[in-house]
Amino acid sequence: MPSAKEQRYGREREQNGEHDRQHNHKHDYKHDCWPGWSLSHQADDYELRLFVKELENSFGCDRPAGDATGTMPPYKPERAYTKSSISTSDSTAQLLKFDAEAAVAEAVEDEPADRKDWKPERKQWLAMISLSLVSFVVSLDATILVTALPEMSHSLRGSAAETFWTGTAYLLISAVFQPVIAAASACYGRQRLLVMSIVLFTFGTAFCAVAHDFAVMLIGRCVQGVGGGGVIAMTQVIFCDMVPLRQRPQYFSMVLASWSIGSIIGPVVGGAFVESASWRWCFYINFPFCFLGFFAALLFVDDVDVPLANHPRRMDWLGAFLFVGSTTSLLLGISWGGTQHPWASAATLAPILAGLLGVAGFVAWQWRAQPHSLLPVSLLRSASSAAAFFCALVNGLVLFTGLYYVPFYQMSVRGSSPVRAGIDLFPAVCLLVPGSVVVAILTSRLGHFRWAIWLGWSVTLVACGLFTVFDERTEKAVFALALAVFGVGNGMVLTSVNVATQAIANQTVAKKEDRAMAACMYGFMRSLGMPVGVAVHRADDAHVVDAQPEPGVNMIGEDVVEGRAREAQSRSHEVQRNTYSITGERTLVNNGEAHYAGAEPERAE
Questions:
Q1: What is the residue range of 537's domain?
Q2: Helix (H) or strand (E) segment spanning residue 590
Q3: How far is CA 385 from the centre of its chain?
């Protein structure tokens, strides 16, 4: 006969079972929210069972309902706990493991598409094409003026410094605003920032197209730079939201290919416009792409929901101000050094030192401003991230140094026309894009990228070595071979470093929006290297000019001069001048005579 305590406990179980049946409670043994329930079935002590019951009630947990007689259903625990089998250290380890998994589960994005068999839907394909289109026009605008600047400088009666900053201002502003726009997209939405960037780029293009002096031209180029930087940043961020990491290199190669093609054919298109129409067509050509990109972004690019935690008030505005100000000051000093001012002058050192101090202050503020800092602090602590970002910086520097160096070498040393100088870049573009696409496919399938980084830099180093032996007697076959090697190496580096930055971010950064910022940092560092590369080219150009024995010495061969003179005489209009340098500081061919020009270009009457 059961004891009084057992009878009392049986009545309580029957009452609880009847209560559960009235409220249609359904239970699953595997989802009991109080793990002590299994322990209560193993205990023989009545007081322990009552204690467990009180804990269950206090935590709001339901107990399994009994049958019609109030009898509990049979229960078979997965593990029989005894007093000696429960270890405090083991339990703590399991609890810590559970907490870590829960934290990661909350932080990592919920991407059901993160599978090996992920394929883009129709709308996602259209979004990728739209992003590739706007990336193409932004990169085209970055280099299209390489062969058009001399004619534009003559038309607008600009000085050497004004001509130089027409090309550099766009690259500089484009670089420094990329992280700011990417961070703002986490507060205001991806699609809004992409559309805003396209609109700014279009307005800047309109300013440049109607400019009649360099003041308006520089304003337009700066506005273009903000919009172009936003397009580059949002392309990276949107791809991170849309495509899983495993498949991202394969599909992002579309954007990299578009960006590469636009960058390399820019000088060809610019030279063709100068010879057949007007330099203003270098800006008119942007409008159709801008309008198509604008409507495509509205129709095909989905906006992500902005979390309440990412309210605009949480935007790190002070960090954005420090970042833009310090990087701009640093790049200004680097651009001035050796060209407009000596490297040891106060005009050069002051902005460089101010920029370095600003960067140090920005980094310190990022630690203080977390978790709402402009850049993820975990990226700043990772040595792997620093190495990958440095590779992106050098990649942009090397690529744009080559893109600016080769056309000027062709026009100045070999006497090529602007169109011919641009066409000579085709060996690079013909192999840069395939190299980038092949590496993207291999890294997606193999899951490794370090081999591509090492091989890409090795090939690029060989190409840069070949560039150093160029002179007026270099064979065309050697020239084409060097450009082909240059294209293959840079194509491999473009894709592999991009994959590396995003893979490292997936290991070091938990939040989804921070991973997107890490991807944007790749584009920023690559864009940061571009104006530095142009400044290096210009400083080296000025150094070579200063090294000439006397101003009157002809800097190009007599055969080149005669060839250019015959070409000028064959034209229907009189050639007033043909300046090949971006600064307008080098060789003038006027009436078939070559002169050295160390001063500003002569102004048209």
A1: 124-315+372-546
A2: strand 587-590
A3: 14
Confirm whether pTM is higher than 0.70: no
Co-location of 207 and 259 in the same domain: yes
9 vs 215: CA distance, rounded Å? 91
The verdict on residue 324 lying in a domain is yes
Residue 565 is assigned to a structural domain of this protein? no
8 A C-beta contact, residue 36 and residue 52: yes
How many percent of the chain have pLDDT more than 90?
10
Q: How far apart are CA 232 and CA 195, in angstroms?
A: 12
| Residue 599, number of CB atoms within 10 A of its CB | 11
Q: Distance between CA 247 and CA 499 in Å, rounded?
A: 10
Residues 386 and 258 in one domain: yes
**pLDDT confidence of residue 513:** 60
In this structure, what token pair is assigned to residue 455? 């091989």
**Residue 92, domain member (yes or no):** no
From first CA to last CA, the distance across the chain in angstroms is 122
Of 23, 94, 103, whose CA–CA distance to 63 is shortest?
A: 23
DSSP state for residue 337 in the 8-state scheme: B
CA distance 24 to 21: 5
Instruction: Please say which residue of 515, 546, 577 terminates a domain.
Output: 546
Over residues 354-365, the pLDDT tens digits come to 989 988 888 888
C-alpha span between 212 and 283 (Å, rounded): 14
HSE-CB of 441 using CA atoms within 13 angstroms: 5
Same domain, 493 and 527: yes
Final residue in a domain of this structure, among 61, 78, 95:
78
Is the pLDDT higher at 40 or at 310? Answer: 310
Regarding whether 398 and 477 lie in a shared domain, the answer is yes
Q: Which amino acid is at 355?
A: G
65 shares a domain with 131: no
Largest pairwise CA distance in the chain = 126
For the stretch 330-381, pLDDT in tens is 888 877 776 677 778 888 888 889 989 988 888 888 888 777 777 777 776 7
Lowest-pLDDT range of 157-161, 191-195, 552-556: 552-556
CATH number at residue 473: 1.20.1250.20
Q: Which residues contact 47 (CB under 8 A, 6 or more apart)?
A: none
Residue 558 has pLDDT above 50, yes or no: no
DSSP state, residue 121: -
User: SS3 for 589?
Assistant: strand
Q: Is 595 strand, coil or helix?
A: strand
> What digits encode the pLDDT tens for the residues 414-440?
777 777 777 777 888 778 878 888 888
Q: Which residues contact 602 (CB under 8 A, 6 or more apart)?
A: 577
CA–chain centroid gap for 262, Å, is: 16
Number of structural domains found in the chain: 3
In a shared domain, residues 430 and 507: yes
> Is residue 86 in some structural domain?
no
Q: How many other CB atoms sit within 10 Å of the CB of residue 215?
A: 12
- What pLDDT is attached to residue 459? 92
Tokens 């960006």, residue located: 259
Helix (H) or strand (E) holding 49: helix 46-58
Q: Is 526 exposed, middle or buried (0-12, 13-18, 19+ CB in 10 A)?
A: buried
**Judgement on whether residues 250 and 159 belong to the same structural domain of the protein:** yes
Q: Does 142 share its domain with 132?
A: yes
| Alpha-carbon gap, residue 262 to 144, rounded angstroms | 9
